[in-house]
Design brief:
The protein has 79 residues and is an all-alpha fold. It contains 3 helices and no strands. The longest helix is centred in the last third of the chain and has 24 residues. It is flat. It starts with a helix and ends with a helix.
Length: 79
């Protein structure tokens, strides 16, 4: 479980570190989109304890974040 905490902290800190390093805002937006997906998968499996949940429930819980990110990224790419 400690590994999950560290992974979540890295996912939270990585965009801030990248911004301070001078990464372009366009790349930063895509980095944040990726980190949101990684964090949501970790949260569903480890903190919502859905690792042993029925497949349909686990899939539904894991797919909401990627679907939202795809929608937001689509609007981001259009503008």
């Amino acid at each position: 479980m400690l590994t999950v905490y560290f992974a979540l902290m890295i996912c939270t800190a990585l965009p801030v570190i990248a911004l301070k390093a001078g990464i372009s805002p366009e790349f930063l937006a895509w980095l944040v989109f990726g980190m949101v997906i990684v964090k949501s998968l970790l949260l569903v499996d480890h903190f919502m304890e859905m690792k042993k949940a029925p497949r349909g429930w686990r899939l539904a819980a894991q797919l909401w974040a990627p679907m939202v990110i795809v929608a937001v990224a689509g609007f981001h790419a259009i503008t």
